[in-house]
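Go through the following before class.
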Amino acid sequence: MIATPVDSDRLSLRLPTSADAADLVRLLNDHAVVKFLSNVPSPYRDRDAIDFITSALGHGPLPVGCALLVEDRSTNAVVGAIGVRAHDLPDGKRIGEIGYWLGRSYWGMGYATEAVAALLPQCFAGLGLDRMTASVDAENTASLRVLEKNGFQPVGLVDQWLPARGHGKKSVVMTLEADRWRAQATLPTVLVVAVALLDGDDRVLIAQRPQGKSMAGLWEFPGGKVAAGEAPEDALIRELREELGIDTEESCLAPFCFASHRYEAFHLLMPLYICRVWSGQAHGREGQSLRWVGVNELTAIDMPPADIPLVAMLRDYL
């Protein structure tokens, strides 16, 4: 059993009530939200919301499994839903299929990633599941990224029929084993700071990781680890001086965005700053090669997984 509510930093996952019907109808009468959902009818009517709510409470006709609403704890607003359906395999193992959606105005805020992360301990510990699965439309890159951030891995493509849409789609099957989740749950978080140095032509400086380091040969934004007790800006100023032989000041570093990525041995948290003012000529003081490239060229360059999402953000900014 899942003990509700399940709270995270910003969200509360709770059972729905009849008072939530109007919010469900409002959020799900949006084609952009439902187009990737296999069983949600469109248009979404009051009767559909009531069927969902009664089924989530164990009395209705829909096979929703354990279905919970996602609520913003600061406003008590319903922002979406998440659920898991569990079943037993012939070999005695228990697996669960996870599904979730958010209202369009709540996209891009990290809510889906946070909601999945909050539910997983309840699935593996509370329900005793051995494996979690998800089938995601191959075009739904945002949902695939949510699962990847939570440790899911793709295992193949399948043809999936979407009854409510009346057509089929290619879906990516994602899985997460209980043992892998337990190992990831204890991963240390490593804080690394990086910078997009921009010249007068809005070209960005990238550095190639030298031989002997992990991910050797890949190109990345300059930066490095933040030492214990060190401010990110101080760490970046130090790293630029040590690695590139240039000097800048905190007032020249503009916080831009950040990356959060789970590697095999650690979870990386990496703030990215933008800098246009420094003194000195950048050169690789640790054997690394350097390149000034246009931001549109970055998509064709091999970069570490944590750096790749930052490229799109930087491209949109410039």
